[in-house]
What does this fold into?
Amino acid sequence: MIEFTWAGKNRTAPQQTTILSRSLVFPGSFNTGSPVTNQLVFGDNFSILSNLTQTHAGRVDLIYIDPPFFTNRDFSARVGKGEDSRKPKNWRLAAGYQDTWNGLEPYLQFLYERLNLAHQILSPSGSLYLHLDWHADAYARLILDEIFGSDHFLNEIIWTYHGPSPIRSAFNRKHDTILVYTKSDDYIFNVDDVRTDYNQNTIKTFASSPKAGFGKIPDLKRGKVPEDWWYFPVVARLHAERTGYPTQKPEKLLERIIKASSNPGSYVLDFFSGSGTTARVANRLGRQFIAADNQLRAIHITAERLMRDGSSPFAMLELENSQAVIQARDNLVRRVEGGLELIWDEDIFFWEWGIMTEQGIFNSLGQSTRAYRETKLQKNMAIPSHLDHLVVRVTDRSDQIFQQVI
It folds into this structure.
């Protein structure tokens, strides 16, 4: 076997740490009896993966990750409302994520140690999809060959898209690469769930001549297996999906991946979760999800999308050394007949009401959200009349969290 080496290459020992529960979220339901298996985790993903090797080793059927691409750029998130997309100088921005490195070797080590742990977490029938581009995909394939074995390489998928480009001295770079590896030869691939329609020209060709296809007539009604090049529009062209988070991926892309390589009830893991597209689509398709990110803004965007969908219950967790600060306030809400009214009218992302358990975990039983680009927020929520000692939490667009006990 050929081994890919670089200065400083080593298998870093897992770094387990305590994971704390911030809250259990029950969107659209007061039923706290539902089991909570979905996880949204804030903190460094190497430590999170280290913990998952103890709790979920061999249990995850699909891992999709969209890590930094080695672009050596810092990416900002858009947080303003009602802005002109054609005037980026006027956008209100906040920190998104960093993709800057002190050379190629630290980046390769960063990928290597996380992919090693990911391999342990995958089930025997599991698959890993690694989403990169021209900056580092060739290096990543050598790393994956070493960890998974070159005989477990399944596909090199090309995601192609349109959009403006400043390049004038070469062909425009308008595709990403998704490398797919399996844990074993017995892997999940639901071919009939991802079939697409034949092109109308193909249908017309077979209708016009019995000799088309060299005498082989496909089942035109059933559709075909997609090629390993996919066209989906970028999120910038999909207004309904935009969150303002940088490098967000389209839902149709994740839908095809999740349908192909997992089953209903399967665990799907994304430890570079970003805007939470993997978690959102996995939940919609009846899968269990574990989504992790080290940016609090990414966690809050994902939580807002799940709340807005009325998703299955999910736990919001955080590493002990990455706890979000929750500030006490007295003027967030007031009781009104039949419910609560929000009176603190800052730039709010979402607000929740619920109860605090004896273990100090906030059970979020009602949520009101304001998605990216929306200006209105529902300021009244109904509550059961028999509940006392309620807790209200408000998360603003600066990712500050405020709490009031009423």
